[in-house]
Amino acid sequence: MRRTTTGRDVTRLLADFGHDLPAAPSVSPSVREPRLFRNASRRGPRHRGSGWAASTRAPVSVWRMTSDQAPVLWPFIAATGLPPTGAQMGIDVLSGGSFYLDPFGWVLRDDVPITNPNVICFGKPGRGKSATTKAFILRMMDFGYRTLILGDPKDEYEPLCSVLGVEPFRIGPGLPARINPLAFGPLAQGWADLNAGEAQSRAAIVFGRWLTLLRGLVGSQRVGDTPVPFGPVEENVVKAGLRQLTGYTHGNTHLAETTIPELWHLLNAPTPELVDQCRYASTRHFLDETRLLRDALGQLTSGALAGIFDDHTSITVDWAAPIQSLSLSRLELLGEEAVGIALTCLSSWGRGMRELADPGDLRIMVRDEVWKQMRLGAEAVKSFDGDLRLSRSHGDVQWANAHKPSDLLSVGDASSQAVAIAKDLLHLADIKILHGQDLGVARDLEQVMGLGPIARDVITTWAMHGKGRALWCVGEQQYKVQTVLHPTEAALTFTNDAIAGAG
Amino acid sequence: MAVIYSDYSRARIGHFFGLSGWQLAVVALSLMPVFVCVNAAAWVPAAGFVLAWALVVVVTVTPVRGRSATNWAATSVAFAVGALAGWTRFRSRAAVGAAADLGVPDLPGVLAGVEIHDGPPQGPAGTRVAVVQNHTTRTWAVAAAVVHPGIGMSEADERAQFGTGLSELLDLASRAELVEEILLLVRTVPEDGAERDQWITRHRSPAGPTVARVVNDELQAALTGGCVRTEAFLTLVVPEARLGKAAKEAGGGFEGRARVLYSLMGECDAQLRGAVGMTGVEWLTSPQLAAACRTGFAPGDRAGIIDALTAHTSDPAVNADVPWAMAGPSGADPAARHYSHDAWNSISATIKLPVKGAAMGALAPILTPTEPGERRSVLVAFPIISASAADRQSASSEWAADMGEGLRTKAKVKPRTRAVDDAAKVRGLDRKLARGSSLTRPYAVATVTVPKTVRAAEFGRRLDASVRKAGFAPLRLDLSQDAAFAASTIPLGISLTRTGDT
What percent of chain A is modeled with pLDDT above 70? Predict the structure, then answer.
């Protein structure tokens, strides 16, 4: 029977009222993915010149094991090596690769885990410490680095200076060279044109450096076994004295350079203004309260510092020369303390000279026999600590040579603040070179630096069996490195002249 | 105290009493005449056929230097025929002036089925990782250049930590059930000083003292020739059979496959940088992979590539890419005992693990060249067996061990120490699998590459000596030197044991 349409269907009804129902979606025919693979022979095509493989299944020895045994086939044995930048120092004997040292280059790279360019080199005498140092500074000169030897107690760097056509400055009693550790350095240039903010920040740097130096020098003097105190009171007196002597207190347009003896004289005959500024009731009160400080400064002025660091600088340093060295061998007769004080003064002076260094003026600051400076006490350690902290901003590689870690730790009792700072010093040098040591010292190193037994054995055995062998710690990474010397360097670094005849 | 890893056994490649399918067929068929004679009560001919059968069994089954005698014969014939017909020689299309499309790889033998795709851009730099499609094995692969600090100065606990990291990487791959093989490839390459030359050119100060310049130049000349550089690669191989389904969910087609591969790379990357201790993992783009491939065949070409790359940074007009059509050798000639490619000869050997076990890092001597100019490569392949296949294998091994033990007890044969140890290993394997470890069937291949100006055989002997010095035993991969070289030196994910059953 034929059905007749009796009315509108729902779709039509809704459409009449303005609501269009969506049409049924059209189902697109499913499309097969195109074939991604083609048929190909495992042996490769079989025609002339195609390199067809006669056998694809090589008879390899296959083993069955659970994943926990997989390390038996561990292939990553040698370190990939550091980038080939900086000075080519020798051979990394574990990987067979060339070993390069580039402190600033490493700081700038993300793939070498170091954040400061300082180097501390430990080693028994005769293990190749100074040869490594000289090789590094000579090789880096080729890349625009200059070197400043801040104190050469044994005149070891003289031959190197001679080859480079530079005459070292000889410092010692009776010699004409004077160095003023309270020199302004480049920071005083254009003082008159500085705005207030800039002048204040420069003054903070200069006075901060001088205070660190004077704290170190005064702290090296002793009453019995106790170092002369240099607390906030003494610091205030010295700071006020220095500001008055330089004219900073009076807002002078040009600051006057002063010296340690001038400071001592001022404190011995204080002006009423100084007494007032330091909040003493009277001159008598001032003199009574600062007696120890004045006597300590007096000892320095008339003792170890006399005739060397007690006047304005008389040498003119050619900063464009590849190397400059300050020879201290004449101080040996005055004892280790004098050498230590001289090293502290030169450190401060050197730091002052490097303030406001031009960008790209890269310099290696060598501090030989740094342990002599450390022995002056906690304040001297702090002074050295300050130098290391500033290396990155000044563009300096601070290179310190010492015999053993206990040189740094002998500044105080085991749990003292000085020892804590000295330990921190090790962390301020991300690059450590550990030449051969006796077992006892190596154990110290293991403890202080957190080395493991393998590293300790490298130091006590492998490194002891050859000159120039050392364990190099670059951040957390360790490398067994044999320094290789060029014949020219070998001649320059020979330090056994005194006993050469015995051979 | 260093951990000694010794809990492994020879993988039985065959499925039937240790025999492969064709071996079983030969053994079974050669037994048929015996049965026929016995059925006919012809005892004398039966005895003769038994002797003949025994001979066939020995020839078919007994392995001699890794292959059965039959296999040796068949492969030798194939090799001779291939050589006479000129099939085994390789002359690149570029070398004969017939390279039409420079982007198409032109590689010899087992590498011929490889196609390189640029993956979709990823990361902030929009890097397009190279995806290697192998048409012959129906697999996909991605390769990374990795940097590891090495374990030369690591203490025992740190080594153990790295080792555990590797185990976890395999477990991770096993759980995801996508990655079938992880290949670790390390090449110890003679230093060419290319980067150093570039750095010196950029940094040398004209005002520097002459003596410093002379010292640097002479030292570089003296040191560079004798030094080596380490290159390491990791390749993940995923078969289409496993990837296809996951890829469909990710959009299908090549893009879908690349997306799944990228996610695997991400998982693997985290593990590598974490527990495995890698300090650098860089997934290779197509030009980087082409350079790795070319320097694999011709180590001497690296200096030129580095120079071009450096020149390209200052002058974009300089073409620093190695076209895929020239990433292989321009000519290669496989010989029975070595592989000759461009100006170099290579010899490969596989490494047999010692029964007494070995410590982590024992491969060190194998990676150390004995003379300047020599290159060593080591491939360590970890084919990962799927959980179900591992369970099946473990169950059948345990059944076989129980059976053997039962038979010996019945026959009152005193079990030998080795048999007892093997049975204990089988049961230990089952225990470890039950507790979450994955099963792997690793193998290692070492290759030495030397210029044609020196005797390759001598360096092959030195490679064997290094393998022995490391405490392992070498087995030359003769007649398969070309395939072994491709697997152990070129990071394109070539497997030497892939059967498709894992």
Answer: 92
Interface touch A58/B350, C-beta < 8 Å: yes
**Residue B30 DSSP one-character state:** H
pLDDT (mean) for B245-271: 92
Tokens of B147: 């940097």
Is B256 an 8 Å CB contact of chain A?
no
Q: Can you tell me the mean pLDDT for B65-88? A: 91
Q: CA–CA separation, A19 vs A12, rounded Å?
A: 9
User: Is the CB of residue A40 less than 8 Å away from at least one CB of chain B?
Assistant: yes
More confident residue, A465 or A388: A465
Does the beta carbon of B446 lie under 8 angstroms from any beta carbon of chain A? no
| Residue B347 near chain A (CB below 8 Å) | no
Backbone torsion region of residue A426, taken as left when φ is above 0, otherwise alpha when ψ lies between -120 and 50, otherwise beta: alpha
Q: What are phi and psi of A395, to 5 degrees?
A: 80, 35
CB contact under 8 Å between A44 and B109, yes or no, is: yes
pLDDT at A348: 83
| pLDDT tens by residue, B396-421 | 878 877 877 787 788 887 877 877 88
DSSP per-residue letters across A185-196: GGGGTTGGG--H
> Are residues A37 and B188, on separate chains, in Cβ contact within 8 Å?
no
B-contacting residues of A 231-260, CB under 8 Å?
none
The answer to whether residue B465 scores a pLDDT higher than 80 is: yes
Please identify which residue in the block is written with the tokens 């201790």: B277
Name which of B114, B116, B119, B153 is nearest B137 in CA terms: B114
Rounded to two decimals, what is the model's pTM? 0.84
Say if residue A189's pLDDT is above 70: yes
The answer to whether A54 contacts B78, with C-beta atoms less than 8 Å apart, is: yes
Cβ <8 Å between B483 and A55 = yes
Q: Give yes or no for A360 touching B (CB within 8 A).
A: no
Quick one: closest CA in B to A146, which residue? B208
| Angle formed at CA A316 by CA A311 and CA A317, multiple of 5 degrees | 120
Q: Write out the two tokens for B182.
A: 């992880």
Tell me what ipTM this predicted complex has.
Answer: 0.90
Contacts with A, B 283-312, CB within 8 Å:
none
Q: Which amino acid is at A384?
A: F
User: Pairing mode, if any, of strands A146-152 and A323-327?
Assistant: parallel
- Tell me which chain A residues have a C-beta less than 8 angstroms from the C-beta of B66: 59-61
Distances in Å between the Cα of A441 and the Cα atoms of A23, A286, A408, A483, B404 are: 89, 48, 12, 22, 60
Reduced to 3 states (helix: H, G, I; strand: E, B; else coil), residue B340 is strand
Is B20 near chain A, with CB under 8 Å?
no
Residue A470, C-beta contacts closer than 8 angstroms, at least 6 positions apart: A123, A127, A128, A132, A433, A434, A435, A436, A463, A481, A483
User: Residues A448, A423: contact at Cβ < 8 Å?
Assistant: yes
Reported as a single tens digit per residue, the pLDDT across A224-244 is: 778 888 889 999 999 999 999
pLDDT for A106-151, tens place per residue? 999 888 888 889 999 988 888 888 899 999 999 999 999 999 998 8
Which residue in B221, B215, B151 sits closest to B191, CA to CA?
B221
Token duo for residue A35? 């074939």
- Per-residue tokens: B305: 């590539």
Mutation to test the A interface, candidates B1, B87, B481, most A Cβ within 10 Å = B87
Q: From residue A129, how far is each of A32, A404, B370 by CA, in Å?
A: 73, 12, 30
Report yes or no: B169 and B277 within 8 Å, Cβ to Cβ: no
**Top-confidence range, B188-197, B309-318, B493-502:** B188-197
**Does the pLDDT at position B283 exceed 90?**
yes
Measured between CA atoms, the residue of chain A closest to residue B199 is A85
State residue B233 phi and psi, 5-degree precision: -135, 150
**H helices present in A355-452, as ranges:** 370-374, 378-394, 405-409, 417-428, 439-449
- Residues paired with residue B143 on neighbouring β-strands, in sequence order: B235
